[in-house]
Structure formats: structure tokens, C-alpha cells
Design goal:
The protein is α+β, with helices and mostly antiparallel strands and 277 residues long. The chain has helices at residues 3-10, 25-65, 69-82, 98-111, 158-162, 169-176, 186-206, 217-225, 236-244, 257-265; strands at residues 115-123, 132-141, 150-155, 182-185, 228-231, 274-276. It folds into two domains: 46-231, no CATH class; 236-276, no CATH class. A hairpin with an 8-residue loop joins β1 and β2. The radius of gyration is 27 Å and the shape is globular. The chain binds zinc ion. InterPro entries: PDDEXK-like.
Length: 277
């Protein structure tokens, strides 16, 4: 359709309704010539964008396909734990609420012999990011003398953490490839955060949208690697003993009282119940 014909047609259209068509022929011609000038630039942009997304897919694939035997073992155990989840809340949620799921998985892994805990991270707001908190599970593996202590993170809603409402096709496609439940070394999660956050940034830039600070790498990083309190769950039988000594709580430092009391009263439990890093 030529612009001449278009402007002929617009004569019969109410300009106040279809304001978009109300531009004069000279305006149309001007933007048309600019479009041709910009075509080469746009081609370059398209190529650059294509390269970027291809690289992101490859990076993600490389990060997710590698797995140590220790990571695989913990992953299998987590999967088994989740196959029989129960919500013990007064109003149970089908499939289990987040707190029950965390506790259930943590309990299961502990019984299976892993040094596991529920971690609660909390961070203050900074000029860059708002404050927030997050709960997840970790396993400290000390089985390898060579590698020392290796931290494995278990995130039950990884995909959800990175989903964006009005994201591009490429970004959504990338998120689809993330596991719903992440079980992997801390370093692997750090890599994933880097890949996904730079993709989110690119996606928002391409969509000409502002990226919320809670989507930033710094914010995502704080969720799993900011200051956190590590609470080791104790068997239910001990909880009675804990309440019996509750009068001593005021003398103890502010932390996870449940586990702290236990250590106080059961010194034979040689473990670090609360580890704030
Ligand atoms: Zn529940």
C-alpha cells in the first residue's frame, strides 16, 4: 500500500478516532525514508540480539548439564522427599505450603545423613536494592578432604523466582529451561543468577521497559548468598525438653532459640546449630 493511497483513504476516516492515520503525507514520507536509512542498523541490532540469546542458551545449558555425583545424590534424595509431601498446617494447602515443604525436605535429608538446614537470608535496603528475605535449604558436604566444605543449595521454586510478567519470547524460553527445583553447588547457582539476570536486563532493554530493582543480580544474589541464619531442625522428641528450659532463653543471645537451647542443655550434640555467615 503506497502512502499516497493511504492518505487518500484517511480522508474518509474520522481523525479524532484514528489519530494514528491523521499524519500528513509529508510526515509519512519522512518517516518512510528514515525507516530505509535505519534498516541496516536494525539488521545489526537483530544479529546482535540473536547472538546474545544464543550465547545465553549455551551458557545455561553448560551450567545445568554438569553435575557432581554428590549433587546428583542430594538431588535424588530431594526428589524422593518431595514425592510424599504433607502440609501440617491448620488449613493445609494441597501439595504443601512452602514452610511445610522446606521442613519436610530438610527432615528427610537429615534422616538420610546429610548435614542440612533451613536457611533464612535477610538483607537491608541499599541505594541499589530494596530489603527482603528468603528461605531455602542447604547441605554442607564435608565428605571430600580435597575440596573441603562444599555448600549445596536447594531452592524449591527456582523458576518462579525469575519469571517476569511481560517478558520476551527469548527470556521466557530461557526460564522454561530452568529446573523448577534447583539442587546444586553454590557456585552453580551463582552462575545461573548471572546468566538469568543479564538476560532479564537485555530483555527489558529490548522491550524498552524499566527493570525493577528486585530483578537485579545484587538482589537475587542476596536471596541465597546474603547474610543468613542456618537453623538445623531437631527431632520432635527434643522440643518438649526445650520448652522445659524455656526460662533460660532470656540469657541466651538472639538467634534460633530452639536449637540454641538444645545445645545448651544437650552439650553432647556436637554441631553448630546456628551459623550466621
Ligand atoms: Zn503447611
Amino acid at each position: 500500500m503506497s502512502f499516497h493511497k493511504l492518505s487518500d483513504e484517511t480522508i474518509f476516516v474520522d481523525d479524532s478516532v484514528f489519530g494514528f492515520f491523521g499524519r500528513s503525507e509529508s510526515e509519512e514520507s519522512f518517516s518512510n525514508s528514515r525507516m530505509i536509512e535505519n534498516e541496516e542498523d536494525e539488521d545489526e541490532d537483530v544479529d546482535e540480539s540473536k547472538c546474545f540469546w544464543e550465547a545465553q542458551f549455551q551458557l545455561l545449558h553448560a551450567t545445568l548439564t554438569k553435575s557432581s555425583s554428590m549433587e546428583s545424590t542430594i538431588r535424588r534424595a530431594t526428589k524422593t522427599a518431595l514425592s510424599a509431601t504433607i502440609c501440617v498446617c491448620q488449613i493445609p494447602i494441597s501439595g504443601g505450603c512452602k514452610d511445610c515443604l522446606l521442613k519436610h525436605v530438610c527432615d528427610y535429608l537429615k534422616n538420610a545423613g546429610f548435614n542440612t538446614a533451613i536457611c533464612k537470608s535477610k538483607w537491608r535496603s541499599s541505594p541499589d536494592i530494596p530489603s527482603g528475605e528468603h528461605k531455602y535449604i542447604d547441605v554442607m558436604d564435608t565428605s571430600s578432604c580435597k575440596k573441603g566444605e562444599v555448600r549445596v543449595v536447594i531452592e524449591l521454586n527456582l523458576r518462579q523466582e525469575f519469571q517476569m510478567g511481560r517478558a520476551s519470547k527469548e527470556y521466557n524460553e530461557l526460564i522454561k529451561r530452568l529446573p523448577e527445583i534447583f539442587v546444586g553447588k553454590a557456585e552453580r547457582l551463582k552462575n545461573l543468577i548471572k546468566i538469568i539476570c543479564s538476560s532479564a536486563k537485555k530483555c527489558m532493554k529490548e522491550n524498552k521497559m524499566h527493570m525493577g530493582p528486585w530483578r537485579k543480580q545484587t538482589y537475587m544474589h542476596a536471596k541465597w548468598f546474603g547474610t543468613y541464619e542456618r537453623t538445623i531442625l531437631v527431632p520432635a522428641v527434643f522440643s518438649l525438653a526445650v520448652s522445659a528450659f524455656s526460662d533460660q532463653r532470656s540469657k541466651l543471645p538472639k538467634s534460633s532459640m530452639l536449637t540454641f537451647d538444645l545445645l545448651h542443655n544437650f552439650p553432647s550434640l556436637h554441631c553448630t546449630a546456628v551459623q550466621v555467615l
